[in-house]
Amino acid sequence: MSSTLSSAEVMLVSPQQASSPKKRRITPSPESSVSKKLLIISPITQVQPQPLVAPSSFSNGLVANLFPRNGAIIELRRPLCLQHAHPDPRPQLPETPQPDLPVSRQIIFDFDLRTTPSKFLEHDGNKLLLEVFPGAHRVEFDDRVLVYHFKKLPSKPWPKKIAGVPCYLTDNENDFGPSIPIHRRSLSRIAVSDHLNLRDNEAAVDLVFNLVKDFFVDKSISITEIQFWGHVVIIVLEDANEDNLSRVPCSVAQCNCFYLFEQEMCRPRSLSALRRQAISVSGGQIDNSQYEVMRPGVILSSGKHPEEGIEILTSSGVLIKDNFGAKFMTVAAHGFPGPPFDGQVYHPSHAGTRIGEVIMELTHTDISLVKLDEGMEFNNEPFENTIIPAPPFKFAGFSRAAETRIGDHIFLDSPFAGFLEGTKLSHALLRVPSDDPLEPEQTWIRCQWDYMGQGSSEAIVDGICGSPIWGRNHEVIGFFRYAPTSGVFVDCCLVVAADHLLDKGYSML
To answer: Most buried among 83, 160, 281, 362, by the most CB within 10 A?
Structure first.
């Protein structure tokens, strides 16, 4: 094993943290355990000497928004040492090369694969990405996630993002991580609306959904979900009947179609928070502090079950108003399921303060509205987190699903997991059961799938439900509904789009 110096350098950077009354009183364990450090790999002399304070000259401001408040401290700076294995004429045991890079939350290059995915195909970019982990023998990229393949996995912790996109590490050749689930093709040559080209046209996602729905209604084939991944459409068939694959489209508007069966989606049978034992982070802590001013991401309780003595804990949403100016707080509907619970809302537990009462549920969306008690104050300003230092901000309103883009960064903050980062994977349209079997029209709700990072399912517990999800522009795009604990979408979460509030005339305060 020998090492060579490259023409790049490594900098380990720590954002400066400042104490703030806007932070949580208790930082939940998943947030506190995340590395705050960033690793910057750049051409030598590209980065200004310390102190590194935004705006930086690094790659035309690529790092300028990473430290918007207090700047950062460069803890380490040296040439990048790349390790290469050289064959030895004498037989010896295989040696697994270890990365020569310190632990960090993110590895940043002078290119960003979200905006310039073609860099992955360039020799220098691909070589550098692969050599981040000398033990990796292959790296793949589907325009969303970097998947590194190993004979033997490197020691943890692993970075969450590399070159601006999520990364996934595996020692299983058949494991492709959170890539597009193109497991099952159509066996037909049916091309729906082939005269249209809607590939990578996210602004036309609603048209794609309508084309798919119309086809399957006409053919009387039951489907439960449609996902738009840019150039690919994933359709979930209700029945696991392979014969249907000869009757379904191979493409819609020139987007190739692939199929999943409903039984593969691993959806929760109910959203009644039955996994209550998962509320407490094992060996860790949650923020069960009592706050005088309510805000997004504080703990809520449905009260105590009169017979079983249990309570359901969830997270607060946002404060909204209707067309008449009446104000409401959003919550997860399944956290306040009705009798024998009486719809009262408490904070932070049944033994705490009553803050309001559930008065309405938006059908099928898992969103309920709470009328806050007189004098109860709610501020649409999320907590400051310890991971991405930034000035305090209020949510800037709602964003419609069609205005968001695949690959966008998304964020949520709950009292159970603290601050979490994710990436939008796909647009989705989810069919919900109708209460009336004679009702001719099916009901569909607008959603999206977000990837929360490798191993994130350990931090995502039932109490997160109801938490608002927002993007870089501080607009709320939806609300956390559920996260599968196994199957194709493990480490992902389904988010109900804010469209359903906007369509009923609600707006953010």
So the answer is: 160
List all residues 6 or more positions away from 81 whose beta carbon is below 8 Å from its beta carbon: 3, 4, 5, 6, 100
- Dig out the tokens for 187 from the structure: 């066996």
Q: How many Cα atoms within 13 Å fall on the side-chain side of residue 362?
A: 25
Please check whether residue 167 is in contact with residue 160, taking contact to mean a CB–CB distance below 8 angstroms. yes
- For residues 57 and 125, membership in a common domain is answered with yes
What's the mean pLDDT in 429-452?
79
pLDDT tens-digit series, residues 375-391 = 999 999 999 999 987 78
19/14 Cα distance (integer angstroms): 15
Total domains present in the chain: 2
Residues 96 and 226 in one domain: no
% of the chain with per-residue pLDDT over 70? 84
- 154 and 250 fall within a common domain: no
Element (H, E) at 206: helix 205-219
Question: Are residues 80 and 13 located together in one domain of the fold?
Answer: yes
Verify that 114 and 244 share a domain, yes or no.
no
3-state secondary structure 118-143: HHHHCHHHHHHHHHCCCCEEEEEECC
Asked if residue 381 belongs to a domain, the reply is no
Question: What number of other Cβ atoms are within 10 A of residue 237's Cβ?
Answer: 23
- Amino acid, res. 476: V
- Extract the tokens encoding 157: 């912790």
Per-residue pLDDT reduced to its tens digit, 273-310 = 333 334 444 556 999 999 999 999 999 999 988 888 88
Cα–Cα distance for residue pair 28/10, rounded to 1 Å: 31
Establish if 457 belongs to a structural domain. no
* Structural domain span for residue 110: 2-170
| 121 domain residue, yes or no | yes
Query: Nearest Cα to 53, choosing from 108, 107, 13, 9?
Result: 13
Tokens of 14: 């720590």
Same domain, 8 and 153: yes
Report pLDDT digits (tens) over 451-487.
999 999 888 888 899 999 999 899 999 999 999 988 8
Select from 229, 182, 173 the least CA-distant residue to 201: 229
Residue 137 forms part of a structural domain: yes
Q: Give, for 42, the enclosing helix (H) or strand (E).
A: strand 38-43
**End position of a domain, from candidates 218, 240, 264:** 264
